[in-house]
Amino acid sequence: MRLRTPAHAGTFYPATKDELVRAIEASFTHRLGPGRLPEKAGAGGALPEAYIVPHAGYMYSGPVAAHAYLDLAESGRPEVVILVGPNHTGLGLAASVWPEGVWRTPLGDVEVDVEVARLIVEYTGIVAPDEDGHIYEHSIEVNIPFLQYIYGGDFRIVPIVVLHQTLDISLRIAAAYSKVRHENGVNTVMIATSDLNHYEPYEDNKKKDLKLLRAIEEGSPERVFRVIEEEAISACGPSPIVAAVEAGRLRGIKPRVLAYANSGDVTGEKAWVVGYPAVKV
Question: Within 10 A of 252 (CB to CB), how many other CB atoms are there?
Answer without folding.
Answer: 7
